[in-house]
Amino acid sequence: xxxxxxxxxxxxxxxxxxxxxxxxxxxxxxxxxxxxxxxxxxxxxxxxxxxxxxxxxxxxxxxxxxxxxxxxxxxxxxxxxxxxxxxxxxxxxxxxxxxxxxxxxxxxxxxxxxxxxxxxxxxxxxxxxxxxxxxxxxxxxxxxxxxxxxxxxxxxxxxxxxxxxxxxxxxxxxxxxxxxxxxxxxxxxxxxxxxxxxxxxxxxxxxxxxxxxxxxxxxxxxxxxxxxxxxxxxxxxxxxxxxxxxxxxxxxxxxxxxxxxxxxxxxxxxxxxxxxxxxxxxxxxxxxxxxxxxxxxxxxxxxxxxxxxxxxxxxxxxxxxxxxxxxxxxxxxxxxxxxxxxxxxxxxxxxxxxxxxxxxxxxxxxxxxxxxxxxxxxxxxxxxxxxxxxxxxxxxxxxxxxxxxxxxxxxxxxxxxxxxxxxxxxxxxxxxxxxxxxxxxxxxxxxxx
Amino acid sequence: xxxxxxxxxxxxxxxxxxxxxxxxxxxxxxxxxxxxxxxxxxxxxxxxxxxxxxxxxxxxxxxxxxxxxxxxxxxxxxxxxxxxxxxxxxxxxxxxxxxxxxxxxxxxxxxxxxxxxxxxxxxxxxxxxxxxxxxxxxxxxxxxxxxxxxxxxxxxxxxxxxxxxxxxxxxxxxxxxxxxxxxxxxxxxxxxxxxxxxxxxxxxxxxxxxxxxxxxxxxxxxxxxxxxxxxxxxxxxxxxxxxxxxxxxxxxxxxxxxxxxxxxxxxxxxxxxxxxxxxxxxxxxxxxxxxxxxxxxxxxxxxxxxxxxxxxxxxxxxxxxxxxxxxxxxxxxxxxxxxxxxxxxxxxxxxxxxxxxxxxxxxxxxxxxxxxxxxxxxxxxxxxxxxxxxxxxxxxxxxxxxxxxxxxxxxxxxxxxxxxxxxxxxxxxxxxxxxxxxxxxxxxxxxxxxxxxxxxxxxxxxxxxxxxxxxxxxxxxxxxxxxxxxxxxxxxxxxxxxxxxxxxxxxxxxxxxxxxxxxxxxxxxxxxxxxxxxxxxxxxxxxxxxxxxxxxxxxxxxxxxxxxxxxxxxxxxxxxxxxxxxxxxxxxxxxxxxxxxxxxxxxxxxxxxxxxxxxxxxxxxxxxxxxxxxxxxxxxxxxxxxxxxxxxxxxxxxxxxxxxxxxxxxxxxxxxxxxxxxxxxxxxxxxxxxxxxxxxxxxxxxxxxxxxxxxxxxxxxxxxxxxxxxxxxxxxxxxxxxxxxxxxxxxxxxxxxxxxxxxxxxxxxxxxxxxxxxxxxxxxxxxxxxxxxxxxxxxxxxxxxxxxxxxxxxxxxxxxxxxxxxxxxxxxxxxxxxxxxxxxxxxxxxxxxxxxxxxxxxxxxxxxxxxxxxxxxxxxxxxxxxxxxxxxxxxxxxxxxxxxxxxxxxxxxxxxxxxxxxxxxxxxxxxxxxxxxxxxxxxxxxxxxxxxxxxxxxxxxxxxxxxxxxxxxxxxxxxxxxxxxxxxxxxxxxxxxxxxxxxxxxxxxxxxxxxxxxxxxxxxxxxx
Lengths: 449, 1024
Prior knowledge:
The complex is a heterodimer of chains A (449) and B (1024). Chain A has 449 residues and is mostly helical. Chain A is built from 18 helices and three strands. Chain A has helices at 2-15, 21-54, 57-75, 94-101, 109-118, 121-125, 129-135, 150-162, 181-220, 234-258, 275-281, 286-289, 304-311, 323-332, 364-370, 375-379, 396-405, 420-427; strands at residues 334-335, 340-341, 350-351. In chain A, helix 4 packs across helix 5 (109-118) and helix 13 (304-311) packs across helix 14. The longest helix of chain A is centred in the middle third of the chain and has 40 residues, at 181-220. The radius of gyration of chain A is 35 Å and the shape is elongated. Chain A starts with a helix and ends in a 22-residue tail after the last helix. With 1024 residues, chain B is an alpha/beta fold. Chain B has four domains: 9-25 and 702-747 and 758-1018, Alpha-Beta Plaits (2-Layer Sandwich); 152-215 and 380-526, Rossmann fold, CATH 3.40.50; 234-373, 3-Layer(aba) Sandwich (Dimethylsulfoxide Reductase, domain 2); 558-697, Barwin-like endoglucanases. Chain B is built from 35 helices and 44 strands. In chain B, helix 4 runs parallel beside helix 25 (772-780). The interface between A and B is large, with 55 and 51 residues. Strand 3 of chain A pairs antiparallel with strand 1 (74-75) of chain B.
């Protein structure tokens, strides 16, 4: 039905000499409905397939484990790991351990485990011996999960008991995050070769032309011009000198301007912290670690207690295993075995990548909060960077250019309500947008004071 | 004859040296080579070889510097970040400044845990958000290289355990043997410190002697006689409509100047609606800061300041005085019974009894004077000095501890005391930096700096302040109170001690909160708690004997009388080694980095005193009094009475970190004993020597002179009127403004200000010239200290200067004495970049390093400046400063090549100390540290404006009036400066700049300044 309607509409569009707006909307709606119908169809088919697959018990288990994993990640993973002890104990085999602890007050060990997960106080209050023992595992109390259904708990337990050690990937890891400079270099080499070829060709042609001239002159009976080597040719000398001056000047100026700029700078950091993993794969918000980006001038490099929020529990990474995480523990003075801080913390000495000269004032909060600029605008595809490099040139030209083009959140922020004249101009359509430059964003004292 | 404003005698008399330097871009000779390795004779010019050498050097150096690879910079986060610290965001903590006898309730601005600036606490009922230059500069003393890094025994460093054990054993032994132990301190305004001292005194049967270097014992003794209360009442200058001061510098240095300045200024603010102001009469011998702002000055010899008190008592009691001027004053006072105030700066108890009688006759007690909130900041006795010396000399005092006192500098018989001190078995100083007394003690147990310490201060009865630490201890120091508690056998920390003390004594008297913890949190947050004060006291008489005693003591004055005073910057000597304060020019004489004898102009002329402007040479004189002789340069000061000679105390320090801080001579030995009190006037003899000395006087640096426009008479620079005229017309004195505005035509287009338009107004009527703004600006904007030698060459870097103009009380007829002291008037005019909307400096910069912003700021991009100095030359206000040297170590290049430019004699040790990592901790990280060779100037504290705007943007709201401020505005104790956005029609600055009194300095040249001044109004009948 929908297809037919759609077909007719398309026909109408084709045959109508002028297509008015309402029709376009109709067409769009038609398309949308069309697409939805297909989606419904696919979903139904998929459900049927799922229903079919579900009859196999193995598949059911796998599905339940997958669901359990999801539940585990959202509820438990901040403190627990199935295989290693963190804030809470390593959980693999937990069902067996509670079963082994035996029945008490008419309830099986597994039932007590369910009760514990929902509210650990219930079994402890009932003085179930194993629960009392486990309540002394750590000084930090376990969160309460009264909303978890019994079948969900079963799924979680199924996942926990079925988890295996994931194999460590080969050293080196995936080659994501390679810089884009290599192909650029290749291109320019080809260009240079091509230019060189042209020069050689030109030289040959000049030689041939001269030979031909000589032949003509000889044919006319004149003596051929004395052969002057090209480096003694005045015209050539002047041309070469001019060329050298132009090239030299350009080279000098270009390099002088670039002095102190570090685009592409990618130092080796004391800890191989992987942004691609944290920000890219796990989608941890930038400001979870760089907390002051929204508050002050510096984005802030997280202190070690921020790392430990997760890495108390996450003791092994997918790429470097325990090697890099051990460096955090070493710096913060954490002993993995006893799960205790045993030494005073000392800061990690990161290498600063983004350097601005002392006479430049840059404020992160201004850009992140007031300007609503995405981190990637200046820092590039940080979520893909295994090792961070400086993406932008951080030159004044680059800053100013952005200030010229970027539109200010003019209507959305009450701060700008006092800029009456600009509001009037916007209303009168004498200007179509307010850029940062229009409110003085390219003036000296905005960044230099 | 037109009214003339002049900065100094050299200008009034148009001395050739002054005229010659007027047109010069820079006052001193060009310094091309005055600092390079070997001194070059002044006649030799740079030859071709030198030129080539320098060329070769600079090319090579530049090549080396630029060829170097970019250094690897580290970014080191906190290992464990404290919750309240956000890198790059300032935190403010309420605290209390009580140092060297000065008090202010303050907020301490910290960045990443470093205190970098002091702001006034607006919640305070005493200082009301004002600060002083000393409070502003005190942050530098935290990072002072002269500080002790740990306890010492003699010259050796020892551990605290060892010091405690050794001193404890000695104290016990002396106490057990019945030997006397003395704790000598200045006034203790902290109730908890007093309690700790009490505990110590009780344990060792010790004696606590209290003396203030600049003593207030006279008032205390007098009030004990007159009222039976040994206390100083609170003075309400805001409630007084007639103020008579007898040689009392209450706006500059006396008792509680920040508080008094704020109160006094309340009745000096006039506008079209309120055309009333207080009348202030100053009876004085030397020209003080307070006298400079008075409506009328009665000039007399120093001894007559006291004699006039007796005359005034006669006059107000109806007996009448032989002195007609005094009779006139009495008439005014009697007309304002109950709302007048008479104060005296004398430390003679008899004089103060007479003054008490005057105030009592006028019915001022209970109105402008009250014992309900009497002062706790001054409790010292002058007898303490004698008993200290006596006990140590006769050997009865076996042990002496010095807390917050430096008697080897401030004792009139310091030399004898130094000898006697050697006899003591045990001497301990708690000083946190090296001073005369601590170096003579056997042990030094360094106190922590006030910014590192917990403390409480009760400046007045019923008012309590908390001081909290704003940084971890920089050195191995310990609070003196902790030390005293430890030695008294009390094991609690001083913090807990304060808390329990407050729980007992302060908490029960307040009604704000229930629960001590909540109360304590509020107290720490606000910094101040106000409870009920005490009761009043009634006058008991006794004025007659006092009056006759005064007459007897002062009737024989002598032709040469010394008047000792406390300088506004360096104070009683506590601040004498603070570079910020030493470089702050004296408000009156504009001398910095020196102590001098201020002499009357007539005397200077008679005795051929050299005040050579060109060579900066000043004649040295020998002053002899009390059997002591000191040598000082003489500076002629207009407005000073004949026979009056002023010397500031607090100079002549011998134990300092740099030789440049060994400044002047110590005048404390000139204090004269009258009765039980040490008074500041004494008869002396003066001998003129043939020697001369260079002085750094900024008086005639940076002159606003425009031939044919403002001209030499400074028409259009300063405007003033009198109150009767102002009552008639609100634009009195400023009548020409309308015409000037009409005549303003320009070829240039006007800058559009669509958002903010920053504007500053300065009320000339309430500016007292105290210099708090100058110091605040220096601290906020990383303005370097350049040292005496550089100031002599007119190279001080201050972005904000206070121009002090002299003029006459009325039109002076040709041929009259233009320097008659009593006819002299003073105007203070803070002068900073005027941020002209039509700026002459902007047009001449070849590289556009200075240009105009859309918010009305005249911007200065240091990194773009190439140092042509065209702008400074073209600035009519002379507010641009050139960095002749790398004053703050901004150039890493210098460090690389071994500071070869910085070292050789060009920069003083003080300035070089600014290169040290410890001292650099005071720098504001939001403001660029300028390098050599660039121009700098007032930026209207653009860093604060940007920060305030960002806060508003983040909070999605318009900027509020008063949020964006400048350092000078917030520091001003009298709120003479108002800053804001004139596009905000509801702002204070909009009202202020549209007042009929507002004018721009020399605005007839159409610079369109964004700084407006408000006409000065003097409350007197003569025509201006």
